[in-house]
Amino acid sequence: MSVITVPRILREKFGDEVVEALLDVINLNEPSKDLATKADIANLRTELKTDIAKLDGKIDSVKIALDLKIDNLKTALEGKSDSVKTGLEGNIRDLGWKQKLYFLILLFAMLLTNPKAMDLLGKLLGPVK
Asked: What is the 3-state secondary structure (H, E, C) of the chain?
């Protein structure tokens, strides 16, 4: 806080109360040491730019790592889906043959146990000789 000397003539003319009020106003307008200077703001701006650049680098490295993990998972899932597909295709092929075999067994069982079916089959196949 700086020392301000008020001339005696002002004190006599306006009185001590007015001069003290004027001094209070002047003291309020005096620059405070808590306020940031242009240099402080420039330093802060430089620090922020440095921090932002570091964060950008970290974000890029995390993005690359995530992309790599996603690609690895995609490759693993594709391999598993191919093996599951191959297994299911084999199962379907096996079921197709089993279904045909069961149909033929059922047809022969019906033909052998039903005499009318044998007569019908004879009539149908008779002219084929």
From this structure: CCCCCCCHHHHHHHCHHHHHHHHHHHHHCCCCCCCCCHHHHHHHHHHHHHHHHHHHHHHHHHHHHHHHHHHHHHHHHHHHHHHHHHHHHHHHHHHHHHHHHHHHHHHHHHHHHCHHHHHHHHHHHHHHC
